[in-house]
């Protein structure tokens, strides 16, 4: 236990001169590393100043700034570390992380990882049967282990009474057999993958420019070494960092993969999206700044006494009630998509929320086996929206579809009761081709795949209602309906609000169902009856290459979604504050 | 019925229980019917899917083997008024329609050379017709040759030597038998790069799940246990980012892929989705609940942060990691909008299942059976994973209410 005692003493951050000296030598290495980086920066600056590299002006300027800042910061780091200033540690850390990232990106490009993944996918397909063997082996092993553990629980011995020795040995043997299957599968997989080709692939990639690859590798290794030195506990002691802040750099290091990815693939694009929404840009020619024109064109409305009296560029969007006046817009398709999505919300949200509430109450009655229905109801949400939509598409077939057959059968039944046989013996609703019902078809698929998710949320809410409330209600002589009306509903208010808003936010982003339901017809079929905002953004951005307009519409949609999100956030916060 | 989770007894209790089970069963059927429909359709022939009224079991036209040849079987009316299931040896036989002179409703269809001509004629509706002698039910009947018909020649597969029976198509009904078209699955598997899309989806899903779990564990640990300046603000930023809908990102992210040359590459389906605020949030919330004492014991043993994370925190966080894995798996497996944008529809090498399925869905008019078989293949992995991880999944949705 001596090691533990020493470590505990170390935590007290008492500097000992002997350790200091050893570490100072290590730090001289770090200083050398920053001097090297300063040298590289100088080299870059000299090359740019002498005009040795043929580069576009903007890249030259950018490189110049990077070189200048790099030179200054690295020199500063050398000085600060030499003077044992705490900020030097942080600065060194930041520089090393950035250099490591740079080297990593260079290696990623040099080793052709992106192209390599596509090649790998080809081999992966070829070797897939072997992977299935591995999977079978793993499942086999897990099952055998479970049985083994059940036969021989921890704490019992093979010689104990009641333990069947033969069965225990057999399961042990079965475990080994499972592992053997895994092993055989893996070897077969490597053979089928032709692993030697992967080596050749990387060899080719490296030998295309060996200097750059090796340099990047060395740079990565050096940066990693410098990082570890700087964030170590010894470094924290050397720089006399307070215990509470000693782990700060480690924290940033652990967060860095996530944070850099977050910046590159979320925050960066988000800002970029905001910027290009103010530009007219087709992705090929230079972007032209147009101010708020994209937004104006999307949102502009004008009222006139008749469709002919609208200003030029405006098309009728809808007529005002009780008068001949019409409202015109510069982008009638956008308004059509908004009208569609709100019509959709009007039907789909109550459908997906009320059915879930009703079923959750049924499940919560607590009769045997009702809980299992939660999982059943959830299956449509996990089965994959494209798959389930294609099933519905087949069932919606106008002439031979299952739905119309069901409706026809119901009509025939009604004919027996109703006089005059009002229903035809072959009802053929054009679910996917009739503009009047196409959106309803989308609603049906949405509600069907969403209500299971909401049911789970409601059952969780119902479990939170105290039993005493019901007992009190029962004492007051409330019947089942009155209990539901006066206890369940008020108590579920917050859950209902949460479920409704979640469903609304999801519904506002409707796209997949519409797309899959209409293939191979253009999205929005028929007659733009299923044109939703996201479908419209897709059309603008990826079929008309109007990236600026598409971004502007996306931000408008975001504002609509955000209003609901904010409402939800507020409610949750007041919920939390209320319970405190 | 009582909503307090305490079943009511007595007659009313029984009625309530019946009502609960009935509604749940009906809702369960509503959920399951499309899946049953898809399963049944995936085993049918294309013609059978378009049969009206729809049937549960897949049917094919029945055949009988006569002299080593597979012949379609039909229910054919016989001259004596009964019917028999006979094999069609010839389609398009030129036949004549004979009508009895005494009873014009008595009709016989046969080739002309099967009957004996009398050489006389008769005038029917102002037209002169030849008269023949036919044998119907053992009786000799005088008939006239009314008009030409095209029909089929049918024989009894059990007794091929017996005299053939003739009938026009309107009078026969094809005999069908139940047969499962298991071949649909292998056909769709080898269609338009479907198998490549399947293995690509597996590969992409594995990479995304592993990447997400690793970065989320690292980030979650930093947010939960490592103190640094600005941590709380940064965490709030992460939380806020969960609220940004993906729609806002698709265009700039696509342009980013264009500028780094990842369009049409599988890497574009992996790297941008390895870093998730949601996963980081999930892991952080779990790590926060792990008692500090466990960690301090490890520190006293001289363990490094890295060791503590992987030897103490990760083994204790199996439920959270399982939840994150399930969410990430389902999301990666089913994601559609992004592949649609970043992978060309004609690119069969780098397509994924959702995309290939959507393209396949365009063939619903001529091969709905293949579409449904493809859908079944694509649905099996996520549904299996869900059923295995159901406990984690349902509990997590219920507790946090945040959707992955």
Topology:
The complex is a heterodimer of chains A (580) and B (404).
Chain A: H1 2-10, H2 17-49, H3 57-82, H4 86-110, H5 113-126, H6 128-151, H7 165-193, H8 195-208, H9 210-231, H10 233-238, H11 243-246, H12 248-276, E1 279-280, E2 288-289, H13 293-299, E3 301-304, E4 315-319, E5 326-329, H14 332-364, H15 372-382, H16 385-395, H17 402-417, H18 438-463, H19 467-475, H20 480-491, H21 493-508, H22 512-518, H23 533-543, H24 547-579
Antiparallel strand pairs in A: 1-2, 3-5, 4-5
Helix pairs in contact in A: 2-3, 2-9, 3-4, 4-9, 6-7, 8-9, 14-18, 14-21, 15-18, 16-22, 18-21, 19-20, 21-24, 23-24
Chain B: H1 10-42, H2 46-49, E1 59-61, E2 63-66, E3 69-77, E4 83-100, E5 107-110, E6 116-124, E7 127-136, E8 139-155, E9 165-167, E10 173-174, E11 176-178, H3 183-189, H4 194-225, H5 231-242, H6 247-259, H7 267-270, H8 277-288, H9 292-300, H10 305-316, H11 318-334, H12 337-342, H13 353-361, H14 368-388, H15 390-400
Antiparallel strand pairs in B: 1-11, 2-3, 3-4, 3-10, 4-5, 4-8, 6-7, 7-8, 8-9
Helix pairs in contact in B: 1-14, 3-14, 4-8, 4-11, 4-13, 5-8, 8-11, 9-10, 13-14
């Amino acid at each position: 236990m001596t090691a533990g005692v020493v470590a505990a003493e170390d935590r007290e951050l008492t500097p000992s001169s002997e350790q200091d000296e050893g570490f100072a030598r290590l730090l001289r290495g770090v200083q050398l590393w920053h001097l090297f980086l300063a040298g590289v920066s100088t080299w870059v600056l000299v090359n740019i100043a002498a005009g040795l590299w043929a580069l576009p002006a903007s890249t030259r300027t950018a490189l110049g700034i990077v070189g200048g800042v790099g030179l200054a910061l690295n020199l500063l780091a050398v000085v600060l570390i030499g003077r044992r200033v705490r900020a030097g540690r942080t600065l060194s850390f930041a520089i090393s992380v950035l250099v490591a990232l740079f080297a990593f990106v260079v290696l990623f490009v040099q080793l052709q990882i992106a192209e390599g993944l596509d090649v790998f996918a080809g081999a992966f397909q070829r070797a897939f049967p072997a992977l299935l063997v591995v999977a079978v082996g793993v499942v086999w092993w897990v099952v055998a282990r479970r049985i083994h553990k059940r036969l021989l629980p921890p704490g019992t011995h093979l010689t104990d009474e009641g333990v069947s020795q033969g069965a225990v040995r057999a399961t042990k043997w079965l475990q080994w057999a499972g592992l053997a299957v895994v092993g055989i599968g893996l070897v077969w997989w490597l053979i089928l993958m032709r692993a030697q080709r992967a080596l050749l692939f990387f060899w080719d990639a490296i030998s295309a420019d060996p200097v750059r690859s090796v340099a990047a590798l060395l740079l990565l290794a050096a940066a990693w070494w410098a990082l570890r030195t700087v964030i170590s506990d010894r470094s924290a002691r050397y720089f006399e960092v307070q215990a509470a802040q000693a782990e700060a750099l480690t924290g940033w290091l652990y967060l860095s993969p996530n944070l850099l990815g977050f910046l590159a693939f979320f925050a960066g694009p988000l800002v970029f999206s905001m910027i290009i929404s103010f530009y007219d840009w087709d992705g090929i020619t230079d972007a032209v700044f147009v101010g708020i024109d994209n937004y104006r064109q999307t949102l502009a409305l004008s009222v006139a006494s008749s469709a002919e009296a609208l200003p030029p560029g405006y098309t009728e969007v809808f007529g005002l009630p009780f008068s001949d006046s019409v409202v015109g817009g510069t982008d009638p398709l956008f308004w059509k998509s908004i009208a569609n999505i709100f019509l959709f919300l009007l039907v789909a949200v109550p459908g997906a929320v009320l059915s879930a509430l009703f079923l959750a109450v049924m499940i919560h009655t607590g009769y045997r086996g009702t809980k299992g229905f939660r999982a059943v109801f959830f299956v449509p949400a996990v089965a994959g929206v494209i798959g389930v939509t294609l099933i519905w598409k087949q069932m919606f077939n106008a002439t031979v579809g299952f739905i119309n057959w069901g409706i026809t059968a119901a009509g025939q039944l009604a004919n027996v009761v109703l006089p005059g046989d009002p229903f035809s013996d072959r009802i053929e609703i054009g679910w996917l081709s009739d503009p009047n019902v196409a959106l309803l078809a989308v609603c049906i698929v949405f509600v069907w795949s969403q209500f299971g998710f909401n049911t789970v949320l409601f059952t969780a809410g119902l479990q939170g209602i105290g039993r005493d409330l019901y007992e009190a209600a029962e004492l007051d002589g409330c019947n089942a309906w009155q209990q539901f009306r006066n206890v369940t509903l008020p108590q579920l208010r917050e859950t209902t609000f949460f479920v409704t808003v979640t469903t609304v936010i999801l519904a506002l982003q409707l796209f997949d169902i519409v797309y899959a339901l209409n293939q191979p017809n253009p999205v929005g079929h028929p007659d733009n009856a299923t044109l939703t905002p996201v479908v419209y953004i897709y059309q603008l951005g990826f079929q008309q290459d109007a990236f600026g307009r598409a971004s502007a519409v996306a931000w408008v949609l975001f504002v609509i979604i955000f209003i609901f999100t904010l409402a939800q956030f507020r409610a949750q916060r007041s919920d939390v504050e209320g319970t405190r | 019925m009582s909503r307090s989770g305490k079943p009511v007894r007595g007659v009313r209790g029984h009625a309530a229980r019946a009502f609960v089970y009935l509604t749940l069963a009906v809702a369960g059927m509503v959920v399951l019917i499309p899946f049953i429909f898809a399963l049944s359709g995936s085993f049918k022939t294309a013609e059978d899917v378009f049969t009206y009224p729809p049937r549960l079991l897949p049917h094919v036209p029945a055949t009988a083997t006569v002299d080593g040849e597979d012949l379609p079987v039909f229910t054919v009316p016989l001259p004596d008024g009964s019917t028999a299931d006979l094999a069609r040896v010839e389609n398009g036989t030129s036949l004549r329609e004979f009508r009895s002179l005494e009873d014009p409703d008595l009709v016989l269809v046969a080739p002309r050379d099967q009957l004996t001509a009398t050489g006389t004629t008769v005038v029917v509706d102002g037209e002169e017709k030849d008269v023949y002698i036919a044998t119907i039910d053992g009786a000799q009947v005088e008939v006239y040759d009314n008009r030409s018909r095209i029909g089929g020649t049918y024989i009894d597969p059990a007794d091929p030597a017996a005299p053939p029976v003739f009938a026009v198509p309107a009078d026969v009904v094809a005999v069908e038998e139940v047969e499962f078209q298991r071949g649909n699955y292998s056909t769709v598997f080898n269609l338009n790069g479907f198998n490549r899309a399947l293995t690509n989806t597996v590969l992409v899903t594995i990479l995304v799940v592993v990447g997400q779990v690793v970065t989320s564990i690292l980030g979650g640990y930093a947010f939960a246990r490592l103190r640094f300046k600005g941590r709380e603000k940064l965490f709030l930023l992460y939380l806020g980012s969960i609220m940004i809908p993906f729609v806002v990102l698709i265009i700039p992210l696509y342009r980013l892929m264009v500028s780094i040359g990842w369009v049409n590459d599988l890497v574009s389906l992996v790297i941008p989705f390895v870093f998730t605020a949601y996963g980081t949030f999930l892991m952080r919330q779990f790590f926060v609940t792990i008692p500090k004492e466990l960690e301090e014991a490890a520190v006293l043993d001289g363990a490094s942060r890295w060791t503590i994370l992987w030897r103490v925190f990760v083994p204790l966080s199996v439920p959270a990691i399982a939840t994150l894995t399930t969410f990430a798996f389902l999301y990666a497996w089913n994601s559609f909008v992004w592949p649609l944008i970043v992978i060309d529809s004609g690119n069969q090498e780098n397509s994924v299942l959702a995309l290939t399925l959507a393209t396949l869905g365009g063939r619903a008019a001529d091969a709905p059976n293949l579409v449904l078989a493809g859908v079944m293949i694509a649905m099996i992995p996520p549904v299996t994973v869900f059923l295995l991880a159901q406990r984690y999944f349902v509990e997590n949705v219920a507790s946090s209410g945040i959707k992955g």
